[in-house]
Amino acid sequence: MALTIVRDDITRMQVDAIVNSTNERLCPGGTGVDASIHAAAGPALAEALQAIGGCAEGSAVLTDAFGISSCRYIIHTVGPRYRDGRHGEGALLRSCYDSILHLAREKGCRSLAIPSISSGAYGFPKDEAYHIATGCIRRFLYELPDDEDMMVYLVLFDQESVDIGRRLDGEIRENIAETYPNAKKEKLRGLFGRTSNRVYPEEDAAAMAPMPMPTAAAGSAFSGMAEPAEESDYAAQDLSFAEMCDWWCEQKAISKKHFYADANINKAMFWNMKHHPEQMPKKTNVLACAVGLKLDYDQTQDLLMRAGMTLSRFYELDRIVERYIRSRSYDIDTINGELFERDLALLGTF
């Protein structure tokens, strides 16, 4: 089970189903995702939607993919038009994602690509739309039975927003600095509520210094976060990296399903790491496991050491993840949002 942020033309995603953000009459229109999907699927899609007749705001319907060979189904949803945030827009947007995910599950989909619904012409604030999307998807993944799995891609750009010329060597992420002009790069920053005036202190020596541990006073911003792990003899355990993850799950009474979801990894990936300890895992996957297990800084370094790695102040990704770990902020979607915005590799499966 995993959720990842990608940047691609949704009609080219190799998944079981893609999602179209449309209108209540299910009529082709606009210049964004809906237009791209209709252009790729061909006129048979419009005929199928005409036969369905309509879709209520916050709901979803399903059709075949027709001319789109990279997927089997298209799920069509109607997102809310944003007025002022006080007219149930958030509840309707959550209903869109819930409807999409449950419809995909009913059809046996193991992979799904979803655009950022309502954050374009419908005016939903992009940062709020992002957090609603990731929250709904995470909750859905948590609730899946242990014997079910799904990979969900949150596609932040459609074909009209960004002219994707190609995918680099089969990799999912594109490098913003090499592929996009500055104006489009700033549009990506806007997805996370950031502005072009933000200063990134990568070269500032202060940014390389460890952050002090915050105290979780009652009612503070950290009061709802995980408590520090209990004292244990973790350093004395003669276990491999993956075996140590299992050990921490037992120590912290974390179910494997919740561990996979919180670490943004899937069962197959972890099985491979556990049964092939001679193969060095990606550092981003090791860090994802540390976040999913809610380890403190020393425990994270111990886990990294078991995979032949360490956190280094000389790498921006390491400094960012260390900052979140030291502040005991373990929301992997928030961490990946910042990493994505800075053009860095994401934690977990992608």
3D architecture notes:
- There is one protein chain.
- The chain is α/β, with parallel strands linked by helices and 350 residues long.
- The chain has 14 helices and 6 strands.
- The protein has helices spanning 33-41, 43-52, 89-106, 126-143, 176-179, 182-190, 205-208, 241-252, 256-263, 267-275, 283-292, 297-306, 316-326, 332-341; strands spanning 2-6, 17-21, 60-64, 73-77, 111-115, 151-155.
- The protein has a 6-stranded mixed sheet with strand order 1-6-5-2-4-3, sandwiched between helices.
- Strand 3 and strand 4 (73-77) form a beta hairpin.
- Helix 9 (256-263) packs across helix 11 and helix 11 (283-292) crosses helix 12.
- The longest helix is centred in the first third of the chain and has 18 residues, at 89-106.
- The chain is elongated, with a radius of gyration of 21 Å.
- The model is unreliable at 158-229 (pLDDT under 50).
Structure summarized in a few sentences:
β5 (111-115), α4 and β6 form a beta-alpha-beta unit.
Kindly list the characteristics that best describe this protein.
single chain, about 350 residues, alpha/beta, six-stranded mixed beta sheet, 14 helices, about 10% strand, elongated
Tell me the β content: 5-15%
- Taking the alpha carbons of the first and last residues, their distance comes to 11 Å
Largest sheet: 6 strands, mixed
Helix content range: 40-55%
- What sort of overall outline do the alpha carbons produce when their principal axes are compared? elongated
Secondary structure category: alpha/beta
Strand order of the largest sheet: 1-6-5-2-4-3
* Element string (H = helix, E = strand): EEHHEEHEHEHHHHHHHHHH
The whole-angstrom Rg is 21 Å
Unreliable sequence segments: 158-229
Number of helices: 14
- List how many beta strands DSSP finds: 6
On the 0 to 100 scale, the average pLDDT is: 79
